[in-house]
Amino acid sequence: MTAALDAPVRPAPVAPIRSASLSFLRLLRIELRRSPVVLILPLIAALFWYDSYRASMTQQPLWMLRTFWNMGQAHTIIDFGPFVAGMAAWIGSRDGRRRTTDLVTAAVRPRWTVALVSWAATAIWAVAAYLAFVGVLFGVYAAEGVRGEPPWWWVAVGVTAVVAFSAAGFAVGTFFPSRFAAPLAAFGGFLAMVMSAQTGFKNPSGWALILPTNSQGNYEQQDTGIFYPYLPDLPIARILFLAGILAACLGLLGLPARAGGRWLRRTAALVTLAGVATTATAVVLVGTAQVDLRGVVIPALHDAANDRPIAYTPVCGPAAQTQVCLNPAYGRYLTDVTTALAPALAEVSGLPGAPQRVTQIAATDTGGPAAMAISGSPPVLLFGLGAEASLPGSNGFQDGTTTTKDFEGILRVQFAQAFLGAGTAGDTPAQQAVEAALLQRAGTTLADQPRLEEIARLGPGPKLSATGPVYDAAKRLAAMAGTAWHAWLAANLTALRSGALTLEQLP
Amino acid sequence: MTAGTESTLAGAASGAVGYRRTGAGLRLARLHAVSRRVPFALGLLTAFGALLGVALHYHWSMAGGYAVQVLVPLTIQTGAAAVITVSTYGPFGDPERATGRWLPWLRLGSALALTAIAYGLLAAGATGGVLPGGTLALLRYLAGSAGLGLLSAVALGGPFGWVGPMAYLLITEVALDGDPTTPWIWAGRPPHDHGAALCAGAVFVAGLVAITVLGTRNGGNHSTPE
């Protein structure tokens, strides 16, 4: 008895779960070391530079604009997805091509587990590369002092898309173990992305918002990430959609009889069903989406906390003794704005309705220059610059560039229209003549005005030219002495704004 | 045995040898095609031709300018080029190279024949609608992409021949947005542009020469990664 008690205690056997996770990790390490995905990363890096990086660097230094192409139109996903799908298909078809399926099926680990390890190694390499490339991209932007907020939610969408591509490609390779599996997965993936973008162009709302390369509704808003945060509603829905595809593809791998035991296959079936259900749920959720100025609002996913505007301290500068204040993200344009408005403000100084302050507000239009408005007492000129409007330099995806002179001219046109109560459409000939005279006196020549008005107007309109009775009257008004012009304007401004003044009544 | 009889027998023998040679040549070509999964590739090329017809007939990609209209057809043509290049991969490696002196010609013939057949099938599919650029642009793009694919197969291995056409498709997609003038983006040039035709043709010839002389990268120290 004593001898039995004194006998050395046998070491406890290694817990099966610990052993399983160790072998899983060992297998994963081998797969990671031997993964062919690494070989294709330099090519993806080159394409990423050519497509996602190079195009974005021509945009204005605002996060929303810089990332419009690579995140909003999902070009980072296009650069990665098809190649990842192709390589995953090649890896997934390995056992089938090598005719080692029976050999692996007879191994100690269930076939599904081994397949998941192979897929995981592919996904880890792809996600690591995606995050590294996007990290470098964002690092360059940050080093340049790009203003606004980075679109982190869209990075999460990109990561999920890359993982989903890897799972879809792996499933193609597993069920179609051929040399043609890789190209079919890659080109199928690319075609799906192209079709997704096309469907997005045709369907700006509804279910099509779920498609990964549909840029409608998410990056159309001009001041996202500047005046208000990126709404996470649509990114969350897309993540759900892609995660559902991911789960369905991985679950499918465990359905064949050779994949594992009964319980494992039942689990795989449940995973597949859960994936399909998640994808369907995401599509249904997006069907309830409403597109507004801040982005896409999906009621079931919306958090009211995201509606709060981003707090900021404005940057201000004087323009003809009037304080002009901008969001600090637009601080680099302050000099251009004050230079543009100073002569126009000086022309109307002291007149009824002349603004005492100029304040930038979030753009209220989804594209093109925003209209100015004068309101309040004392009067305040409210205007939106909007990231996609005609800022000086290269502007998003418009043809050509906007010169600083044109930018200043556009602001003056908008100011003159706001001050005289004249819209871009429906203004009377007298209002047009006084507007043209005001602009001429502020430094924008009559010859330049039609072109600038065409850029500044919010919708389509007729081709303008600086001829006719309106411009003849404008020339007479512009030739008046400063005091006479000021006195005439003070006496006739109310009648002019109401539209009661005719062209013949002008001096 | 008379002299006439000997002559007849000799003629019959040489005829039999010729027949055997022709038969052996055909058998060799057939075995080469089977080892490269050419029959399956033909099926896929037929499917791509049909897909092009469906895409054009149902206007899958007609919601924008030329750059947008041409994208789906280009993707399908690139897919066909990828199938051509992936079918260059041979599973036998060194033994095949050591014993088959006709191998380079078989590789050349196979690549040429598949490209010609792919063109025919895609052109037939293009009758389903209006193909941007027409069949001349189709020939140019398919030949250029196939050439890139063959070069990729030589550099990376037959199974990865698709990488070259895929990368070129991405470059073309981005370049088309900017109205390219370089003939190296041949899809962005008019169908009768000589420069673009020369560039695409040169790439195709380079691909054919490389695949004929060098073959795909596999075997020995240059094994295709798994």
Verbal overview:
The complex is a heterodimer of chains A (507) and B (226). Chain A is an alpha/beta fold and 507 residues long. Chain A contains 19 helices and nine strands. A five-stranded mixed sheet of chain A has the order 3-4-5-7-6. Chain A has a two-stranded antiparallel ribbon with strand order 1-2. In chain A, α9 (111-143) packs antiparallel against α10, α14 (334-348) runs parallel beside α15 (404-419) and α16 packs across α18. The longest helix of chain A has 33 residues, at 111-143. The radius of gyration of chain A is 31 Å and the shape is elongated. The mean pLDDT of chain A is 85. With 226 residues, chain B is an all-alpha fold. In chain B, 71% of the residues lie in helices and 0% in strands. Chain B is built from nine helices and no strands. In chain B, α2 (38-57) runs parallel beside α6 (103-125). Chain B is elongated, with a radius of gyration of 21 Å. Residues 219-223 of chain B have low confidence and may be disordered. Chain A binds chain B through residues 34, 36, 39-40, 43, 46-47, 50-51, 55, 78-79, 82-83, 86, 90-91, 94, 178-180, 182-184, 186-187, 190-191, 194-195, 198, 201-202, and chain B through 37, 40-41, 44, 60-61, 63-64, 68, 71-72, 75-76, 78-79, 82-83, 86-87, 89, 156, 158-160, 162-163, 166-167, 169-171, 173-174, 225-226.
Low-confidence stretches of chain A: none
Secondary-structure class of chain A: alpha/beta
Adjacency order of strands in the biggest sheet of chain A: 3-4-5-7-6
N- to C-terminal separation of chain A? 126 Å
Spans of at least 5 consecutive residues with low confidence of chain B: 219-223
The helix fraction of chain A, in percent, is 55-70%
Number of helices of chain A: 19
